[in-house]
Amino acid sequence: MAERSTAAVDVADNSGDEPLAAQAAQATSDGVDTQNGRAADGPMPDKDGERTNPAPTAAPELHSGHKLARRYRLEECVTRVDGFSSWRAMDEKLRRAVGVHLMPADHARARSVLAAARSSALLGDPRFVQVLDAVEENDLVYVVHEWLPDATELTALLAAGPLEAHEAYQLVTQISQAMAAAHREGLSHLRLTPSAILRTSTGQYRIRGLAVNAALRGITSETPQRADTEAIGALLYAALTQRWPYENDAYGLAGLPKGVGLIAPDQVRAGVHRGLGELAMRALANDGATASRQEPAFTTPDELAKAVAAMPRIRPPEPTFTAPPEYQHTTYQQGTYGRPMPPGGTTVQNRAVAPPPPPLQSRTGKALKWGVAALLIAALGLGSWQLADTLLDHRTQKGNSGTTNNNTGTGTDDTGEKKEPTLLKITDAQEYAPDGKPQNAENVSNTYDGDASSYWRTKSYYDGPEVKIKDGLGIVYDLGSEQEVSGASIALKYGGPRNTLTLYATDSKSPKGSVGSMVKIAGTTTSETTLQLTADKPVKTRYVLVWITAMPYAPLDDFSDPGYKQAITDVKFTG
């Protein structure tokens, strides 16, 4: 899945151990261009959040074309500030673009940057922009990370307007779950700003700069989980309102009105989803001051993620279709082509159109009219006679053969009436895992036990909607004996943009051949949770494979992490 980072490092705000309100107050006062993410040289905050001038450290004299480790060729400097620089580079070994942070080895923060980069790399969670390398070499320290060429910063998305409710729901779901996973491994971000969030072309949100961006700035916090939770709340608030939830403007967004304090999103902008607005306020709460005083404030990303998962799912809006423009009937106007415009610029359309001349009333005209009418009557009579003759001949042939054209298909009986599909009994089933790695083998029987609340489920995958690391996932059903299988009804747990399932006829419950060698019965791709698959022609078989090759994104639940996954609650075959 190709994705992109639009800048090598997030430098659009200046934060120490200060609350986000204080960060926003200084976001445009320290030489920061919040539109393009570049920062001018200037003093940076130390670990206590005070503005200090660190001991000057000479930035390495590097230029485009310089090569690191005989592999990473620097191409464009994105940021140069406080003794370090960030670049877009080319990994010549793997022929891909990467991002690189560079600083002298004797920089005051070089040790902490290396440690943060190596810790982030060990996490290996694809919801974060991955650290690929962290090296000290030739008096330089450099950190290499992914460069995602098809992603868009949240800053740019918000510049175009607030996000609709479903998109804001996806944002807070994915970011809170990712940060909860990071904190379980002891990692924090501390610089979760709109420019640290990237949205890929597939709708997945990626977080860049985990631990590293804070280390580059010398930022620490005694309450890292609380700091990251408040930052997620600010991102959600901005997504819902297109306003920064503090008095000062920041990240290209206008702040709240002076002196009114933190007000609920639906008081800032009409039509805001109330449930999401309440979550934002509870995450932004400082010292217990929330918009809903009956609800406690969130103090960790995990608490926020669980609250998001507990709320009713917000579905994407229905697609809208624009009606085609009405056909504009035009009338030919006699005598206007090639003539000059009348005085005063009057258009041709405003002029009276001369009526057409009356029809011929002469003796010749009347004769012509009656002659044409006679020809039409004769033609109609001839055509009716030929049609009747054809129908009689067809009926005679049908009587001789004893069959009709409507009775040649498999869906009708000898009387010409359509057959009703018959429900086929499932006697047994077994998970099909050709790679030897089953998903949930012990619960296969839940798919045909008649209980809609029980199910068989897949594991959760970070890449999707197609299953990237497998050919597919599925179950083989035993019908007890050979049957004419004409279709299936399948109930799923998760709906979404892509649910792709296919039925195949197999030779046993444990088929030895590949799926490609099996006989396809029917297949479909849908966003619904109930699938109706119908074969063009029934296939005679005892064993049927239900094969899943694409699944929608679903949030955290009782049995798996968020990701691309599916669960089957009910399967019925018809013949």
Give a structural overview.
The protein has helices spanning 20-26, 110-123, 154-159, 165-184, 212-217, 224-241, 265-268, 274-284, 301-310, 363-401; strands at residues 32-33, 38-39, 44-45, 51-52, 67-68, 72-81, 84-91, 96-104, 131-137, 140-146, 152-153, 197-199, 205-207, 423-424, 428-432, 456-457, 473-492, 499-506, 519-526, 530-550, 553-554, 563-564, 567-574. The chain is of the alpha+beta class. It folds into 2 domains: 1-318, Transferase(Phosphotransferase) domain 1 (Transferase(Phosphotransferase), domain 1); 423-574, Sandwich (Jelly Rolls). The strands form 6 sheets. Strands 14, 15, 16, 17, 18, 19, 20 and 23 form an 8-stranded antiparallel sheet that branches. The protein has a 6-stranded antiparallel sheet with strand order 5-6-7-8-10-9, with helices on one face. Strands 11-12-13 form a 3-stranded antiparallel sheet. Strand 21 and strand 22 (563-564) form a beta hairpin. The protein is globular and about 95 Å long. Mean pLDDT is 78; it is low at 1-59, 287-292, 329-353 and 396-411.
Indicate the topology.
Blueprint: H1 20-26, E1 32-33, E2 38-39, E3 44-45, E4 51-52, E5 67-68, E6 72-81, E7 84-91, E8 96-104, H2 110-123, E9 131-137, E10 140-146, E11 152-153, H3 154-159, H4 165-184, E12 197-199, E13 205-207, H5 212-217, H6 224-241, H7 265-268, H8 274-284, H9 301-310, H10 363-401, E14 423-424, E15 428-432, E16 456-457, E17 473-492, E18 499-506, E19 519-526, E20 530-550, E21 553-554, E22 563-564, E23 567-574
Antiparallel strand pairs: 1-2, 3-4, 5-6, 6-7, 7-8, 8-10, 9-10, 11-12, 12-13, 14-23, 15-17, 16-23, 17-20, 17-23, 18-19, 18-20, 21-22
Helix pairs in contact: 4-6, 4-9, 6-8
